[in-house]
Structures are given as structure tokens and as C-alpha cells.
Amino acid sequence: MRRLIAKDESALRELMMAYGDELLRTAYLLVKDRQAAEEAVMDAFVQAYAKIDQLKQPDKLRSWLLRIVANRCRMRMRTWNWRSLFPFDRVESLAEETEPGPEELLLAQWRAERLSEAIHELDYKYREVIALYYFNELSVLEIAEQLGSNENTVKARLSRGRARLRTLLEKGDEDGAGVYE
Q: What is the pLDDT of residue 104?
């Protein structure tokens, strides 16, 4: 933290290495576009670096960065841009994988695509809480603090988001594969 406050660029690189993948996964889940997610994350790092002295509790750095990314994504979702006219590629794998067999790889890829497609069909408010809760492992209280809302609101959005996600996955599973049962 001291190095970041002193504007040490090597400390910024370390920060990016430590949190970059997690922030990128979160941003991608929120904005549905790899390039927009990368831009949101880079904007968040620039903003965090410029305003690091405003962070009063250094132990909340991760949560602070996630809040910045979520806010940048929310701003991007509100702003129309030319990219909204063009189709984009399917979900790209953002997590490093071990060396499973070819069948496992294919099944895991198929599940990830199905899950990502279903998450992307959710309304933003549900997508946001699901991404923060499941993919960033934030508590309901932490999410409520980040979003500036009530804990019960977060719980309700999680519940509704899960129900909608279950419906979307079951609807797509009518072929009988049953991979999400």
C-alpha cells in the first residue's frame, strides 16, 4: 500500500497481476464483452492508482477494486456504443485449466458456455449480484455495501437470479443431457 500511495509503478503492476484475472472475469460476466471488460478493468486500475490515497481500510483493497470495476461496468452498460451493433464471440475461457482428458475438456467447455449464456440472459441487477457472490465470493453484506443497498435486497436478487438461472438452464436442457441436475 505504501508503494502504491507513493505512486510506485512496479506496485501497480503487482496489483494488476494479483487482481487482474479476477476483475476481468467479473467484468466479463457483467458486460458480456471481452473488450469492454478489459477496458473496464484497465479504467478501474487507472482510477484506483490515481485515488489509492482515498482507500481508508487497506484490508478492503480487493472489495474496493471490485466496486470500482462494477461501477465502470454499470457505466458501460448505460452508455450506448457502436459495438452494440455487432455480434461477438462466445465466452472465452478466462480461467487457467489443468490437464483433464479431452472428454472432460469438451464437457467443461460446454457447461461453461451454457452457464455463461444463461448468466448473460439475466437482467443486469441479477447478473451483478450473482457474479459478485459466486465468482468473487463476496458475502451478502459486502455486496450490499458495494451496491449501496439493503442486505435483504441483495438476498432477494440472489434468490430471483438463481431461480431465473435454473429456469434458463433447465429450458436449454430439454434434450435430456441433465448436466446441471
A: 74
Confidence of residue 99 (pLDDT cuts 50, 70, 90): low
Cβ–Cβ under 8 Å, residues 140 and 154: yes
Query: Which three cell numbers, joined as nine digits, stand for 13?
Result: 503492476
How many Cα atoms occupy the beta-carbon half-sphere of 78 within 13 Å?
Answer: 7
For the entire predicted model, the pTM comes to 0.53
DSSP-derived secondary structure for 153-165: HHHHHHHHHHHHH
Q: How far are the Cα atoms of 66, 112, 127, 140, 141 from residue 134, in angstroms, in the given order?
A: 13, 14, 10, 11, 14
Predicted confidence band of residue 90 (pLDDT cuts 50, 70, 90): very low
Residues 8, 11, 17, 20: is their CA dihedral positive or negative? negative
Neighbours of 164 (CB within 10 A): 18
Query: In angstroms, rounded to a whole number, what is the distance separating the alpha carbons of residues 151 and 157?
Result: 10
Distance between CA atoms of 4 and 11, rounded to whole angstroms? 6
Angle at 107 between CA 104 and CA 28, to 5 degrees: 110
d(CA 173, CA 165): 12
